[in-house]
Amino acid sequence: MTIKLRPSTQPNTEALAKALTQTVTAAGLAPSIHNTQPWRWRMTGDGLDLHLEPSRLLQVSDPDTRLSTLSCGAALHHARVSLAAQGWRATVTRIPDPAHPGHLAHLRVDGPAPEPVEALTVRRARTIGLRHTDRRPLTGPPIGPADITTLLTAVGAEGASLYILRPDQIIDLATSAHHAQRTDLHEARWQAELAHWTGGTRPTGSGIPDATIPAQPSETPVPGRDFGHYGDLPISQGHDRAAVFAIIYGRGDRPQDWLHAGEALSAAWLTATEIGVSLLPLSATIETLSTRQAMRALLSSAGHPYLVLRLGTAEPDDTGPAYAPRLPTDQIIDMS
To answer: Which superkingdom does the taxonomy of this entry point to (predicted)?
Structure first.
């Protein structure tokens, strides 16, 4: 009698460790508030734990760690995409221990995927290395309904929603953005924190270098981040009147909801990169309570706002600004 043995579903320890290291490297490319990269990964026997890194939190701009948690959510989504593209199945537990809120997620690898990796998953993983922040005006044609539908689907798949602002609401958004930034710029502690994380060449591997900050004011209906100075990024004189503005929002306003919002941001941004849409997150109106409430009013109190997005088409013949620096993988992962 012949006995057929089923192939083992238990991951090879060496292969899994290599996959997890590659996963953390990919996750380290995620977008984050002021490029602080506020995540710390810990490798366990069967996966990864994601924690907030206290030394890279914004005490003034983000005292409740709302945007840092959202940033970590983007890194978590990057990690999920990377693992799936490498052919691994994983289960994610978000906020596994409420008594330790800095422990945001546990990602457990269940074993090799039973089916071949889909081409879409492989392409999505490759897009991680292509995605970057572009603060230039959007001088190309407006995005169409099909692109908007694609982005709505990407955000919805991660448990959040995307609200597209009507043209008459953009004035309210612009007013709130202007108010938020004028208020912040008169706060000395806020100025000091911003100066610490932006400007220069950023040799430490984090923060926003001058190469990605516009060299002059942009012609735009909604002001972008005011860094307190101009950088080295050349921009055209075009006005991005064709830009579309949207709000990522959801029902809850707790760390788990912020984490989901970051995963939704990652999904939307990777999708946008694939379909040729420029996506720029605008967080100024989320950082202060009064303007966050104004954003909720734009949603007709249908949910809590997590982040504002500018969507459109950049100059097609331009490669865009430099990529922001990244911390080495060994500085964002602990081996247990």
So the answer is: Bacteria
